[in-house]
Write a structure and sequence with these properties.
The protein is mainly α. Helices cover about 50% and strands about 5% of the residues. The two termini are about 45 Å apart.
């Protein structure tokens, strides 16, 4: 991790005697990149780095202990790295202050009176607005620098998107492949003759499940700095959901690089085939577990992409696996950020399906006899992690079919995952998962019956609900709610060409069966955790 040139003893003494720094460099918890433009263009002899752990930020949404701990641990390690590189760092630990993020910053701006404040573009509209207001009130000029961690800019994405009838990932992804020369031939064609190998990446495990001898993801044991963070989180956020006993996440640049290397060597070869598969008590499988490192900026996306591409060129991983992984980073990750900045701040309030149900309580406890939801929510609370299909086609799908208000789903996803920053989480949740933007991102709602979950996992084997049934005492709530969803939104979705077949199937329902589905759906909404619907269902 490159850093700035270390200060001399003379310079350090000079700074100590000068309370007014030239620039106050404001770094937030998702900006831990020592090669960021903010630091590259600064002077460690004249400028002061400012960082803070704020209780208000951890409570803005009811963040899990694991999410808070990952961010705080990464921040403290980054602070220590900067100090070793010669920077002066004004760092506020959570135990030493109770003010909100911008209350603390405002106090320091007034005390330090820097000539100027500077920051990298934050990952959340709310934080950007708060930063601007804080500096304006303090009378300190503020420069917001572009975040050159990313491979595209909000301005470039907006220019690409404006005027298009459909702003779809696939076309943007192809443009990014060409622009950065990733998996391209010398003739400008996609490697392997196809842009997308998704059809080869939909495998499920056989009846015996994943190979028990497969390579496992590395676990990073807490060092002294992280252990202190865990203590502080328990002390100051003891009433927050989740636990910390299974802490395993990379929180330094070195650990993140090791995690990247281990993934590309060990699990990337099988990642593609099984990236959508799920299995009980197997939260990680072949997934990279790199998203928290990418989203705190300990890893840069292009270095991750190039390392995966290298695995293909060295014939250590098949093209379908490598392309599928690269698409998530070079394509999807950049795409959702572009959507976020293009459509904010109004985007967060969109609710195209007029969904108004509250978020069920079991999303915070995992207490439900429905095995798929118990598995996905349970591992989320334990590890702060669930892979993309568990998020999209289990927890997200249930919220969509139930009709949960998308803003409540958004707040939950932002609160519970260690990789959650609003620029990436909001479009994924409100747009793709909940269809709250009415089709700006997704060409159709991701609506499915319980049969999808049965096909992609073993969850249904030990569940009291039958995914083949939509009515009756053993009907799977996913299946019931799927048909209810189509019936409720039939007119609204009638103009969507990708929904025609699904909507046409509702015409085959007799009036009696449609009524039974609606009645069962009403019962589910009264008891979304299915505790009374399946009173004998096993809940661990």
């Amino acid at each position: 991790m490159a850093g700035a040139k270390k200060k001399t003893t003379t310079a350090r003494k000079k700074r100590t005697g000068t309370p007014k720094p030239r620039r106050l460099l404001i770094i937030f918890g998702d900006q831990l990149d020592a090669e960021a433009k903010l630091l590259r263009e600064a002077d460690p002899e004249k400028d002061l780095v400012w960082m803070a752990e704020a209780k208000g930020e951890a409570g803005h949404v009811w963040s899990t202990k694991m999410r808070i701990a990952v961010f705080f641990a990464a921040m403290r390690h980054f602070r220590d790295h900067l100090k070793k590189e010669g920077w002066d760092v004004l760092y506020h630990e959570v135990g030493k202050q109770t003010e909100g993020l911008f209350d603390r910053l405002s106090r320091d701006l007034k005390k330090l009176k820097p000539q100027e404040a500077a920051a990298t573009l934050p990952g959340e509209w709310r934080v950007k607005s708060g930063l601007e207001e804080c500096c304006e009130e303090a009378g300190v000029p503020l420069e917001i620098l572009p975040d050159d961690h990313f491979l595209d800019t909000p301005e470039s994405f907006a220019a690409w998107a404006e005027g298009r009838k459909q702003v779809r990932l696939e076309f943007y992804y192809r443009e990014m492949r060409k622009r950065h020369d990733v998996l391209m031939t010398r003739e400008g064609k996609p490697t392997g003759g196809e842009w997308n190998f998704d059809k080869e990446n939909r495998g499920s495990f056989g009846k015996d499940g994943p190979d028990p001898l497969r390579p496992q993801a590395p676990e990073f044991k807490p060092d002294a700095v992280t252990r202190k963070v865990l203590e502080d989180v328990e002390k100051h956020f003891g009433d927050h959901p989740g636990g910390l006993d299974s802490f395993r996440w990379p929180v330094t640049r070195e650990q993140a690089l090791e995690a990247l290397e281990r993934f590309c060597e060990d699990r990337l070869p099988s990642f593609g085939e099984y990236q959508d598969a799920m299995w009980t008590e197997e939260p990680f499988l072949y997934h990279s577990l790199l998203s928290s490192s990418l989203n705190t900026k300990l890893l840069r996306p292009l270095e991750v992409v190039r390392r995966a591409e290298k695995a293909y060129k060295e014939k250590k991983a098949p093209l379908a696996a490598v392309e599928g992984f690269i698409r998530q980073i070079l394509g999807w990750r950049e795409y959702v950020r572009g959507i976020y900045w293009w459509k904010m701040p109004e985007y967060v309030e969109r609710n195209a399906l007029e969904a108004e149900e509250p978020l069920p309580d079991f999303y915070w406890t995992g207490e439900t006899p429905l095995r798929c939801l118990r598995e996905a929510v349970g591992q989320t609370l334990e590890h702060g992690y669930a892979h993309h299909i568990q998020r999209l086609m289990v927890t997200g799908l249930y919220g969509l079919l139930l009709g949960v208000r998308p803003q409540e789903m958004h707040a939950w996803y932002l609160a519970v995952y260690v990789d959650a920053v609003e620029w990436v989480e909001l479009p994924n949740t409100l747009g793709m998962s909940q269809f709250g933007d009415g089709g700006l991102m997704a060409s159709k709602p991701y609506a499915a019956t319980g049969k999808y979950i049965q096909r992609m996992s073993n969850y249904c084997r030990n569940c009291p609900a039958n995914p083949a049934e939509a009515t009756g005492d053993t009907a799977c709530p996913f299946t019931t709610l799927y048909w209810d969803f189509l019936l409720r939104h039939k007119k609204r979705l009638a103009g969507n060409p990708r929904m025609k077949l699904q909507l046409r199937n509702t015409d085959r329902l007799s009036a009696e069966r449609a009524k039974a589905i609606r009645q069962r759906a009403v019962a589910i909404r009264k008891d979304p955790a299915a505790m009374t619907l399946f009173p004998d269902g096993e809940v661990d």
